[in-house]
């Protein structure tokens, strides 16, 4: 079955995570994504191992699991864009493309005549997306940065982590590269929107994506609360600023997450805990009162929750329709019956016959679902195929380009 984007070709000059995450989304939906990489080196994350991908004989390859997480369903072409001949090849490929995406430092690609204006000159309908840390303008536009920097600068770390007055208190980053991932997701939305506009108007356009912008936007209700009141949001650790109880509690043998979102759930929760005193106490009967009196209420809940095992609590709470859940490590995640049922763990084939694990896309479409056609490519795996198939280069021309280290 053809994917929803099987008519779209993407020229991908991005590296690390935000850009590749975006283009993997497009590739999963059928787009022909051509990943342009430096000869001999490739995407920086290829070397960010261990763990390493295995070949068909079970031996380590040169490609890391980190690289594999964001590059399935793509074709890899090696081109030296520092060479004029390499720049010419990229412009030739851009003529055949619908989308051009890059994450070079501001101004870098202009030196190679691969900036938006140069690419638009050869393909006026191109959708060109630049991903940078701070955007194309402003006082920080030339600064470099990684995900960690933007989680701190964009406010995420100010509301993540335990309260300062408790053991272990202080700011924490999210345990995965949240700013990168969300910038990749926002970039995916922007590119699809630009393609829809082009379908109606025939016009391409330029997309300016910044990790700082996306991180600030992720602040959602917390950031808006500050703008509305002037009160700076605080860290609550695993608790919630506006819902009580909404946090993990220690049990006899572990922890269980409790998320009581309304007063009906609160009454049912009290029944499960066998605490009619809490259910009847006017200090706790409404959501607002539970927030105001959280310091009195939470120790009482904590005392009751230590009386049973996690599994016992989960069974009782689920039977009473009280929202709850375990805190799983990733072994437990992939053993979870719902995760197994949803097939979130897939295997995709490498060119050498090895099967590579991958995470399924969460996009579920009935007519054009994501496909898992091939594993992340080896460096330069498709250089000859792309140059002959798309640009009509002869074997002699390819040999000359390789001898001159252009590819």
Automatic annotation (TrEMBL):
Keyword Amino-acid biosynthesis: no
SUPFAM superfamilies: CoA-transferase family III (CaiB/BaiF) (SSF89796)
E.C. numbers: 2.8.3.16
InterPro entries for this protein: CoA-transferase_III_domain, CoA-Trfase_fam_III, CoA-Trfase_III_dom3_sf, CoA-Trfase_III_dom_1_sf
Keywords: Transferase
Molecular functions (GO terms): formyl-CoA transferase activity
Protein name stated in the entry: L-carnitine dehydratase/bile acid-inducible protein F
């Amino acid at each position: 079955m053809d994917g929803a984007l099987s008519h779209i070709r993407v020229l991908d000059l991005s590296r690390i995570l935000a850009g590749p995450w975006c283009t993997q989304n497009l590739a999963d939906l059928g787009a022909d994504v051509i990943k342009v990489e430096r000869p001999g080196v490739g995407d920086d994350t290829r070397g960010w191992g261990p763990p390493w991908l295995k070949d068909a004989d079970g031996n380590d390859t040169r490609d890391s699991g980190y690289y594999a997480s964001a590059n399935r369903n793509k074709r890899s072409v090696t081109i030296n864009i520092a060479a004029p001949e390499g720049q010419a090849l990229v412009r030739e490929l851009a003529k055949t493309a619908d989308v051009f995406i890059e994450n070079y430092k501001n101004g870098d690609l202009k030196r190679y005549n691969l900036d938006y204006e140069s690419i638009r000159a050869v393909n006026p309908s191109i959708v060109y997306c630049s991903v940078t840390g701070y955007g194309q303008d402003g006082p920080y536009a030339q600064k470099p940065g990684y995900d960690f920097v933007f989680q701190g600068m964009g406010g995420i770390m100010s509301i993540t982590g335990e309260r300062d007055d408790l053991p272990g208190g202080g700011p924490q980053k999210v345990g995965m590269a949240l700013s990168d991932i969300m910038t990749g997701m926002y970039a995916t939305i922007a590119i699809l929107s630009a393609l829809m506009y082009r379908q109606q108007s025939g016009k391409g356009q330029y997309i300016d994506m910044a990790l700082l912008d996306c991180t600030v936007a992720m602040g959602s209700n917390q950031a808006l609360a500050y703008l509305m009141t002037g009160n700076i949001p605080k860290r609550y650790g695993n608790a919630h600023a506006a819902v009580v109880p909404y946090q993990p509690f220690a049990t006899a043998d572990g922890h269980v997450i409790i998320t009581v979102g309304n007063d009906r759930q609160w009454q049912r929760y009290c029944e499960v805990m066998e605490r009619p005193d809490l259910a009847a106490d006017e200090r706790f009967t409404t959501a607002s009162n539970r927030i105001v009196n959280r310091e009195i209420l939470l120790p009482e809940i904590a005392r009751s929750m230590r009386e049973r095992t996690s599994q016992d609590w989960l069974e009782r709470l689920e039977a009473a329709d009280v929202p709850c859940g375990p805190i799983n490590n990733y072994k437990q995640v992939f053993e979870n019956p719902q995760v197994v049922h949803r097939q979130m763990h897939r295997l995709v084939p490498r060119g050498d016959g090895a099967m590579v694990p991958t995470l399924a896309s969460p996009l579920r479409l009935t007519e054009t679902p994501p496909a898992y056609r091939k594993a992340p490519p080896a460096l330069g795996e498709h250089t000859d195929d792309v140059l002959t198939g798309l640009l009509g280069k002869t074997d002699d021309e390819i040999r000359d380009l390789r001898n001159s280290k252009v590819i």
